[in-house]
Each structure stands twice: as C-alpha cells, then as structure tokens.
Automatic annotation (TrEMBL):
This is Trypsin eta-like. GO terms for molecular function: serine-type endopeptidase activity. Coiled coil: none annotated. Keywords: Disulfide bond, Hydrolase, Protease, Serine protease, Signal. Residues 26-258 form the Peptidase S1 domain. One of its GO terms (cellular component) is extracellular region. The gene is 101894187. It comes from the Eukaryota. One of its GO terms (biological process) is proteolysis. SUPFAM superfamilies: Trypsin-like serine proteases. PANTHER family: AT26814P-RELATED, POLYSERASE-RELATED. Belongs to the peptidase S1 family. The lineage of its organism: Eukaryota, Metazoa, Ecdysozoa, Arthropoda, Hexapoda. The keyword Protease applies. Residues 1-18 form the signal peptide.
C-alpha cells in the first residue's frame, strides 16, 4: 500500500507538487453511497490560478467547520488553493457544494520523513450548511482502539488497483479490513517504524486503502479510530495498512479544534 507519504522520504518538493505521489484509493472494495459514509469529503487542490481543482486526498468531518486529514496531504499547500467537496458519492461531484478552506493546522510533532504524528486540522471558511444531513455529517473520534481481529471499514475515491499511475475511482468505494495488534504490526515493519501515533489494519486482507484515500477515516462501531496514512504497496497481504491513531490524538484534536 504505497501511500503518498512514503514518497516524501525522497523529496518534499516533489511531494508538494506531484499529486501522483500524494494520494491513495480503495482496492478490493465495493461501491457505496456517500450516505453510508457522510463524514467523508474530498480535498481538492489547484496547482495554480489557471488549473482546475482536482481530488488530492480525503478528509473526515469532525464538526461543521473542521475537517481532519493527514498532515502529509496538506503540508506546503496554500490554504486558498484547497477546496472541500462534501456530500457527493462521485469524485467529480458536479452537483455538490464546494467549501473554501480558511487555514489548516499541522500537528506540531509531525515528522515528514517517518510520517509520524500524521494529522492536520482543516478550518473551513464557512460552516457546512445545511448540517447535518444524510450525506454530510460529522463522526466522533473513538475513545479506545478496537481489539485486534475486529473488522473496521474505510472508504475513498482512490485507485482500485495497486498501480502508481492508475486513475482514481469516480464512485465512492468501501472496504472492510481487520484491525492488527500493535505489537504484531511493529514486528512486521521492524525496528521503531510503528509508533504510538499509528495503528494498523488489513494484514492478510485482499482489501485496502490505496493511492488517493489518505485522510479518510477508519471506522469502527460508528466512530473514527484512524486516518489512512501510509503503508507498503496496496492490499499487500504481508504488510497491513498504517493509519494515524486518532485515539492517541483525541485530546489534542478537541483542544485545537476549539481554537481554530
């Protein structure tokens, strides 16, 4: 699961300018309606004034004016070049509202080289409205991580095949992945690669998040437990996907969201 964050090890500037390296999508999933994942939004970016807004990664609605995503998704971008598409099953979202971004906040301990503390809060210029609806709604952050082996869901518009140049899915995709024990994930990736700011899911599964899905929530029992962050290839049975551990950051999110 080659999440875009891994490319940052080679070049920050390339990561900021090359969307092919900065995105993730669902492999081995099924189509779903946005009503099944109303917390999910598309973060869209335009490289310059003459270019269109294009899907870059996903985001997760935390409140009517705050969206959670990965720091890797937005680092180095101008906030006024980011739009948020909400309430659309389709990536093109021609009939769905676009919301301007006022600013974003990276986690202060974000480590670009190891994709650690991979979290950002995105503040919308105007609150989502109407809100909530069956297509646009917030999702709470969980208090605890699911037990290993339990099944969680992840959704997105990313690529449906594990190829670097594959096109994004136009329709929303959903996959079910099994939560992996933290100690087991550390052993799989070796060394100190997996930190407390991360969690893992998907080892042994044929479904996974992939290019274009980063920032989307891993959902368990109606709460967000993680955000798609990085991994080794897409749907690699030997290596689980790595997610930002939202439970680890719950207090920080609550504190900083109120200040933005």
């Amino acid at each position: 699961m080659w999440k875009f964050a891994l490319l940052l090890v080679f070049s920050l500037s390339a990561a900021v300018t090359a969307t092919g390296g900065l995105e993730s999508r669902i492999v081995g999933g099924v189509e779903e309606s946005i009503a099944a994942s109303p917390h999910l939004v598309s973060l869209r970016y335009k490289k310059n004034q003459s270019s269109p807004f294009e899907h870059r990664c996903s985001g997760t609605i935390y409140s009517e004016s705050i969206v959670l995503t990965t720091a890797t998704c937005v680092i180095g971008l101008e906030a006024n070049h980011i739009h948020v598409l909400a309430g659309s099953t389709y990536r093109t979202g021609q009939d769905s509202p676009l919301y301007l971004v006022e600013k974003y906040l990276l986690h202060p301990d974000y480590n670009i080289w190891f994709t650690d503390n991979d979290l950002a809060l995105v503040k919308l210029a105007f609150a989502l409205s109407p809100f909530p609806t069956k297509e646009i709604a917030s999702i709470p952050v969980a208090d605890t991580l699911p037990p290993s082996g339990n099944v969680a869901t992840v959704s997105g518009w990313g690529t449906t095949v594990a190829e670097a140049n594959a096109e994004y899915s136009d329709s929303l995709q959903m996959a079910q992945v099994s939560v992996v024990d933290q100690a087991e994930c550390r052993q799989i990736y070796g060394g100190n690669r997996i930190t407390d700011a991360m969690m893992c899911a998907g080892a042994g599964d044929t479904a996974d998040a992939c290019h274009g899905d980063a920032g989307g929530a891993l959902v368990y029992q109606g709460a967000a437990v993680g955000l798609v962050s990085w991994g080794r290839d897409c749907a690699n049975a030997e290596y689980p996907g790595v997610y930002t551990n939202l439970v680890h950051f719950k207090s920080w999110i609550e504190s900083e969201a109120g200040k933005l």
